[in-house]
Amino acid sequence: MISRNSFNGAFPLARLGDVVEFLDSKRRPVTESERRSGPYPYYGANGLQGTIDDYIFDEPLVLLAEDGGHFDEPERGIAYRISGRTWVNNHAHVLRPGPTVDLAFLCRVLENYDVSPFVTGTTRGKLTQAGAAEIMIPLPPLSEQRKIADVLDRAEGLRAKRRGALAELDTFTRSIFFDLFSDPALPEPSIGELLESGGLLLHKDGNHGSLYPRADDFGDEGIPFLSAKAVTDDGVIDDALIEKLREEIATKLTIGWISKGDVLLAHNASVGKVALYDGRFERALIGTSLTAFRPNPEVLDSRYLAAALRSAKFQRQLEKNMGQTTRNQVPITAQRRLRIVEPPISLQREFSHRVDAVEKLKASYRASLVELDALFASLQYRAFRGEL
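User: That's the sequence. What structure does it adopt?
Assistant: Structure tokens below.
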């Protein structure tokens, strides 16, 4: 993460508004229902949103999130480059670099910038044009800017390759799943039916009602308290994103306790993320954004169940359910109507055995990606301080 405090005076600083031209007035919002798919990319605050049949811009530009961006997690990226014929909606600022700033360098400065001092609004943060214009950026000579951008581009290339390898492994796992379980003759009970038959021993979210913890019930020590934000898109539980609930508060809670082998489904906000809980903590709780599925090991294999919930077929059911409501959630009562394939346990265990090696390789790749992320952050910090 980069901020004004990251710069040590090695390079002069400039207001963003003094070195770029904001092209926001050229943006034209279009509703999703009115947007017709076509040959041109359609961009928003967090990147590509789809395609459209017309374009507004036709040049290299930098987009900076205006609202709906990852302002509280800038390491996920709040700026990116575009080029060619494109359409940008009104959720991203459109920046044309002036003669003193290189486009690639500008993007690298802004992509992980902590803009929280400039963000307004409480429920949905907004980085106004006036606020964005006040962002201070280092401004070395153009030759140095291009050198910095090249170093960071090459480091990002290594990260992209590792992410691509992880995506290929995910595709391989989905392929194994489809090969083994695509037979339409396999039974497909609902979650509710699996509970009634004993295939599932527990299907419960972390809705603690009136006992739900308050912000001041959390601290640096206590019982791990998992929410949807602790589950990554590729199914990993990130310890760094787990809150700690004070033990005297946790002991009052009677539900939401999870065990090794439970499968966790994010059903609120970031709906659809799935993780297999590996029992890494002696005790742990889930919050209201997660549902725990506890399989009967004689009927459902945990790894199979996680893959089934992550499968395209089940995810489509989640999307369909959300489409029938105005909220981005699938409550536990609605989940019980959803269906999963129930193959013989022997076939499930064969699947688990076959993907075990894949999961170990993914773990190795993830560890490598963590190292590459740390390397990139170090290079980024040093680059803007003139220390490359």
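The chain has ten helices and 18 strands.
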